[in-house]
Amino acid sequence: MKLRIVPAQQGALWVRQGFRVFGKQPLAFSGLFAAFLFAVFLLSLIPLLGSVLLLALLPLATLGFMLGTHRALSGGIPLPRSFIEPLRGGRSSAAALLQLGLIYAACTFGIIWLSDAVDGGALDKLMETLASGNATPETIGQQIADPALELGLLLRFGLAALLSVPFWHAPALVHWDRQGAAQSLFSSTVACWRNKGAFAVFGVCWAAVILLFALLANVLAAALGQPQLLALAAMPASLLFSTVFYASLFFTFADCFELPDDPRPASMPTHAADEPPSETP
Q1: φ/ψ bin of 179: left (φ > 0), alpha (ψ from -120 to 50), beta (otherwise)
Q2: Cα(173)–Cα(194) distance, rounded to whole angstroms?
Q3: By the 8 A CB rule, do 53 and 43 touch?
Q4: Distance CA 152, CA 178 (A)
Q5: pLDDT of residue 276
Q6: Cβ(263)–Cβ(74) under 8 Å?
Q7: Are 25 and 73 in contact (CB under 8 A)?
Q8: Which residues pair with 278 in a beta bridge?
Q9: What is the pTM of this model?
Q10: What is the spatial distance between Cα 62 and Cα 47, in angstroms, rounded to a whole number?
Q11: CB 250 within 8 A of CB 268
């Protein structure tokens, strides 16, 4: 498999392709995401072990969404079996996916532990205050203004963003290129770095989509004099954008690497690389 270098504007195309493929089979993709949420709900019912399993299975879940998009582009229907299909690809691939999951879970718990140590439990205190339901705005404001809380949040989001880099393509590289866990993490990091402009635009476009929706929803609610519409629209919009985001992940992989069987039709725009493909490290 070969690494591709794409221009920065490719990130915007990934977002559009995600909406486009979702629009072709909205019910199927919604069912795929609903199956994912149901699995998350079941795992959350298991004390302690459920959290570990949930984190360990996230790399497999992202690969499942990629396979769902791949199947939709090939003319099939994205079904929940996409989440377990990679485990049938052979013992070595299943073992590599298991290793990725365990590494991801261990790193995530490490980030949580380090962030809690830095903020001194400020985030937990804020969550407890909000959950109590009887806190005053002054108390909440004081806790939010705590510098330790700000530092802890920055650390959480910053380290989580860094952790996503090696894991972005890793499960797909294990499945489609039969790479081992270590090699897939390295290859994913190189691919994300070499295409950092496209991924930056990808993130900015998603932020713009969410902010634009929030702005339009606020304007519409104000025009109708029905502020409660915001709460009604928030949940379905969140589910829609989350589903489309996961549907778009396949395009970020297919454009960064040369797939032996690209299922995208000729009418669908692909990458417009300025440089020739180079061998994956």
Answers
A1: beta
A2: 16
A3: yes
A4: 38
A5: 43
A6: yes
A7: no
A8: 3
A9: 0.87
A10: 24
A11: no
Alpha carbons 94 and 100: distance in angstroms, whole number: 10
Which structure tokens are listed for 200?
A: 């930056």
pLDDT 10s digit of each residue in the chain, 281 long? 789 999 999 999 999 999 999 999 999 999 999 999 999 999 999 988 999 999 999 999 999 999 999 999 999 999 999 999 998 878 899 999 999 999 999 999 999 999 888 878 777 777 777 776 666 677 777 777 778 778 888 889 999 999 999 999 999 999 999 999 999 999 999 999 999 999 999 999 999 999 999 898 888 877 877 777 777 778 889 999 999 999 999 999 999 998 777 777 665 666 544 444 444 45
Are residues 224 and 233 in contact, defined by beta-carbon separation less than 8 angstroms? no
3-state secondary structure the chain: CEECCCCCCHHHHHHHHHHHHHHHCHHHHHHHHHHHHHHHHHHHCCCCHHHHHHHHHHHHHHHHHHHHHHHHHCCCCCCHHHHCHHHHCCHHHHHHHHHHHHHHHHHHHHHHHHHHHHHCCHHHHHHHHHHHCCCCHHHHHHHHCCHHHHHHHHHHHHHHHHHHHHHHCHHHHHHHHCCCHHHHHHHHHHHHHHCHHHHHHHHHHHHHHHHHHHHHHHHHHHHHCCCHHHHHHHHHHHHHHHHHHHHHHHHHHHHHECCCCCCCCCCCCCCCCCCCCEECC
| CB-count exposure of residue 107 (10 Å: 0-12, 13-18, 19+) | middle
